[in-house]
Amino acid sequence: MEADLQAHVAFFLSGKINTPNLSSIDGLNLRPALFANYRDLTRLRYDFPLVLLKDAPDGPCVESLSGLIDGILEKIAKGSDGDRIRKHVLRLEQRIRSLATAQDSAPLIPLWEKAASELTSEDKEVAEALSRARANLKVDGEVIDCNVSMPFHYLGHVWALTQTRRARRFGDIVKRLVIKLNEILQADFATSNVGRSAENLKRSFGSGPMDHFDFEAMSRILAKSAPKESLTKSRRRRIEKLLATLQSQQFFPTSQSDKGTYTFAFDSCAAAIAAYRERMPKAIELSKAVAVAELEVKGEYSESKHDRLFESFGESGLDPRDMAIFPDYLVRLHAHELPGEELSWLTEIMSLNLPIKVLVQTDDVIERSPIHDGHLAFALRSRQLARMALGMAGVFVLQSPSSSLYQLREKIRRGLDCSGPALFSVFSGIAGSSAHMPPYLIGAAALESRVFPAFTMDPSSGNDWASRFSLAINPQAELDWAAHRIVYEDDACQTVTAQAPFTLVDFVASDARYAEFFAKVPKAQWNEALTNAGDIIARDKWDSIDRIDSVPSVLMVDEDDRLQKVIVSEKLIREARRCLSMWNSLQELGGIHNSHVEKAVAREKAAWEESARVIVAASAMASAVPAPSPAAATLSPAPAAAAESEPEKSSDEAYIETPRCASCNECIQVNDKMFAYDGNKQAFIKDINAGTYAQLVEAAENCQVAIIHPGKPRNADEAGLAESIKRAEAFQ
Amino acid sequence: MKLSATKQLLELYKEQQALEDYQSGVPRWCTGCGDNAILAAIQRLCRDEGLRPEKTVFVSGIGCSSRFPHYMKTYGFHGIHGRAFPVAEGVKMARPDLTVFVNTGDGDCCSIGAAHWVHAIRYNMNMTVFLHDNQIYGLTKKQASPTSPIGTKSNTTPRGSYLDGLNPLTVTLGVVNASFVAQAVDWIPETLFEIVKAAYHHKGFSFVRIVQRCPEWLPKSLDPWLQDPERIQLVHHADGLQLSPGLSRVYKNQIEHNPRDIHRAREIASNQEAIPVGILYRNPEIPCYEDTRHAGALRTVDAIRRNFDAELDKYTV
User: Fold this and answer.
1) What is the CATH number for A694?
2) Is there a domain that residue A423 lies in?
3) Within an 8 Å CB–CB cutoff, is residue A183 touching chain B?
4) What's the farthest any 2 CA atoms get from each other in chain A?
5) Quick one: angle between helices A215-224 and A198-205, nearest 10?
6) Which of A113, A115, A146, B25 has the fewest CB atoms lying closer than 10 Å?
7) CA A648 from chain center: how many Å?
């Protein structure tokens, strides 16, 4: 036992196999034990393949094949033969999935027809079920599996639909403005001498009983009621220029545009920036034309005020919200194209908030660092790209393996629709020597193992990290590693269940390039010292242990699904700890185990405990006098229960309860110098000396809502005062 | 900044109207008429919301209340008896960009125009409706209206009316697609304005019944409610009418009511003892007919041609 441990520890520390009891895993085609159930994905129902729906700019632009089939089954798999129909349609789905996996992408309808024709030849009942399902298939689009070209296709598809929506919005704006501007010109023509001439009136009449009308007489009558003012020359010129600008723009295709439209999809940041800069003057001109036209059609354009304002329009660029009416630029590139100038351009795009959306596809997330020197180090450039972008203000950032893109479809749509830059960093799952496994599985494993966590940063969602940043899509995001149950059968044919975290070590174990960091342990030498790698990585006191009494291992399966244990080199454990550290910092950003919060909570808790301790002690000392409860002691004085009271009016003073005035004019009609309306058309006493006390009393008597209080008379010599005072008593 | 730089630029020289700018002519209503209070509240709304006179329309039928458009310096349509709603619906369908108000009376709305009233509720078009309910035909000098309380003596009912008055609130709340129902009284200007404002901000058919005094023909009929604050029941809620301290001091009869609860709204609306004042029902999720029918679609040459062809295609053999 001790000798075995020594041999295992020796491998763990040196990475060299020095004993015949350990063997290399190179060429054994081992895979992590968790993958045992996922050898043939075509037999499973999951998110892929996807259907990139055609002609659906406003609805969901992508749907999973199984989602589409579920929708159809909900409609047709009912009644006594529901189960039979379900069975046949699910077989069809499986067949379509197999066909889709075999090719890059293909239209749904032909795939459906092909799969259906293969199955219907067997049975009449199958044909009937599939025919009903086909009749309920209301959509079409490209079917694409989780393969190397999927991220390009997927992002391109959603981006194109975003552009369609924008084009429609922009088209509506331009069409409306063009119609309204033309109407101004037409109205001016209609009221001009030429417009009111008999000849023109006759022409505008169209066909019909021309002889019944005297167009000369009509022209003479219309001339009498002609407006005196017509369009000024400068306004006409301005409107004509606006029309020319709006109708000749090249940003969106319109029926009025006779020039070609610009393209907006590029394969390098440099090309996209060059195009953006070249078109910027045209964008400013168009944006200005839209703004001026809006004022023109409302009749609000004032040359004295607006000419100067619009002279300098756009000199300091356009507001991102104004830019949002234009198409966005899309750049799709691979991570290996980034180093060098391209990375600088990408940084410029993000730091200048240019409306350019960039997809960077990474095919290998554990490539060896180009500067490794004997030790193991994975290059972080692709993994860290999105994290670096988090530091840029106003940039939408999304990182995800391609396997989760479907789940993130709404976020992707938001990212492509936002007004600023967006970075989509996607791991395709086509990692080096893991090619024998499906990309979906590799992508999902990268997510599970925290090697390529998924997150989104959406600046339009709020002003703080809690609103903008999300890690929600990661499995068991609150833990260091996602833990899974592994169920297997032991030598005695008994079911054994083990709980194992899925770590970077498990992910790397599936990659043959790193076989040298693993060694297979024969079953006879399995012992308690072989500890799960996840536990070793997480061990807090790893750096302070004196003697190694356990060796990290992972569970794997061979091609026959027999369980194997392999031990792991210390270099890989070190790399896994680095990966965990990066994941922990992401968790903090996402509000999980945030160290600032935890420290603040600990501080508050200590302070509360101390204050409770003092109160208890004081209470014990003054036992004769009941002490106030801690809660009562900390209570702030209760707010005044009564509402803010208004100063009481003296009964000697005349006044009106103005807020209660019903604007009925009664008092104004008695004396409009004494009473007047305020800004809200409610009465007040404007000048008490502008009338007599008798008028004040009369107004009080007439007031419909009895809100005039005459007070005491100011002039003791007023005639009939005694009677007025008596009448006023009811209103004091 | 809430608006983009360009949008701010467009707003820079926007004209602001004073309350007097919305006033047109001198109202010919009787002195002391509750219509004056309604006019003041609506003019205040126009000013506070910055409604552009050329983008605002007041539509009315016939009656005292229906003289309202004459006193607003906006667009107006003084229609025919009972037909304020169809006219307003036509305006909204043709020009959904306009703000449409309807001023109607208890005779105009609840009698000759009752059918239009019911269907206008059902259509739920985005307009704000004020039912000036003085419980009498005033313009024609005192005839009983559908909302006159039983026993009302008038020129047509000299021995007193024989039927209970119709309750416009419960009727409105009984029609499908009702989306906003509120009640105000003309003699509490603060709540009148707040309710008018809430009605304006609701997207849909906002129905406000305003219990209104008629000092000429029914000078005493509302005195019991006018003189006893306990007979005004303020209906308040965080999502409805909110009460100021001053108002709470005077009117102590208050209930809290969630405007999304239509059953409770019907119960409150049926109160005969006190006049409920507040927002009884509000449901912003009911679609507006003009949206359902895409009334705002741009009439481009292409669209006209397409629709014209579609019509002609119906007759293709």
Assistant:
1) 3.30.70.20
2) no
3) no
4) 130
5) 110
6) B25
7) 56
Tell me the pLDDT tens digit for each residue of A161-219: 999 999 888 988 998 999 999 999 998 998 888 889 999 998 888 777 888 889 999 99
Where along chain B do its domains lie?
Answer: 28-286
Residues of chain B positioned with their CB less than 8 A from the CB of A313: 9
Q: Cis ω on the peptide bond leading into residue A49 (within 30° of 0)? A: yes
Q: Are A182 and A54 in the same domain?
A: no
Domain, as residue range, for A609: 597-629
Between CA B68 and CA B88 the distance in angstroms is: 14
CB-CB contact of A686 with A670 (8 Å): no
- Asked whether the CA dihedral A490, A492, A495, A499 is positive or negative, the reply is negative
Long-range CB contact pairs, A582-585, < 8 A, 24+: A582/A387, A582/A450, A583/A450, A583/A453, A583/A480, A584/A480
Say which residue the tokens 């919305």 belong to: B22
For residue B2, the chain A residues in CB contact (below 8 A) are: none
CA–CA dist A700, A710 (Å, integer): 7
Residue written as tokens 């598809």? A157
CB distance from A681 to chain B under 8 Å? Answer: yes
Nearest Cα of chain A lies from the Cα of B181 at a distance, in angstroms, of: 22
How far, CA to CA in Å, does A472 sit from each of A365, A478, A675? 21, 9, 66
Neighbours of A533 (CB within 10 A): 27
Q: What are the chain B neighbours of A666 within 8 Å (beta carbons)?
A: 31-32
ipTM of the complex: 0.74
Tokens 């004085």 found at: A637
Cβ neighbours of residue A266 closer than 8 Å, sequence gap 6 or more: A272, A275, A329, A330, A331, A332
For tokens 């060299």, what's the residue?
A: A16
- Is B28-286 in CATH node 3.40.710.10? no
Q: Is A203 exposed, middle or buried (0-12, 13-18, 19+ CB in 10 A)?
A: exposed
How far, CA to CA in Å, does B83 sit from each of A444, B90, B110? 66, 11, 11
Q: What is the pTM of this model?
A: 0.73
**Do A457 and A414 meet the contact criterion of CB atoms below 8 Å apart?**
no
Residues of chain A with pLDDT under 50: 627-644
pLDDT in tens, A61-118: 899 999 999 999 999 998 888 999 999 999 999 999 999 988 888 999 999 999 999 8
How far apart are the C-alpha atoms of A289 and A282, rounded to whole Å?
10
Those residues with Cβ within 8 angstroms of residue A493's Cβ, 6 or more apart along the chain or in another chain = none
Put simply, whether A649 touches B (Cβ < 8 Å) is no
